[in-house]
What we know:
Layout: E1 6-11, E2 17-21, H1 30-37, E3 44-48, H2 49-53, E4 63-66, E5 70-73, H3 75-107, H4 112-123, H5 128-131, H6 136-141, H7 145-148
Antiparallel strand pairs: 1-2, 1-3, 4-5
Amino acid sequence: MTDISKTIVYQGDEGNIVLLLLCEASPLSVEEVQTKDVPDGKTSYIVNTSDVQSLDQDWRGAWTYDSSSGFGIDMTKAKNLHRDNIRVRREELMPALDIEFMKAQESGADTSSIVAKKNALRDAPANSAIDSCTTTDELQSQWDTSVLGATIYIV
């Protein structure tokens, strides 16, 4: 039986952290799985599964691992993830504003507030406060609910 209290960690080709979660029913040991499944040339580590479970999934694409300091967050990647999350929300919200704008134009209503909302959505990923963030908590606080709606982050 495989020891599921252990997880194998290595850095993928794109710089991302790859986790090999083990199946209890596997007849292989953790070390055998490591030898079999970690690509040649990759340095891998066996870590406690509880360490992986405690990681914030919102920032998975920014995780780092170092054998001396353990898991961490690459803040440059985290900032880019945050901006990507804003862009996804913008894509969700923009079509409704486009429709609202067209209806207002057709009826001769004032469109300035709609234009302001659209501009705020367009500008949101470029918020300079994102660049000054040093923690993921600070990044999460840069989710402007007045522009983007409810946060996507697990609180």
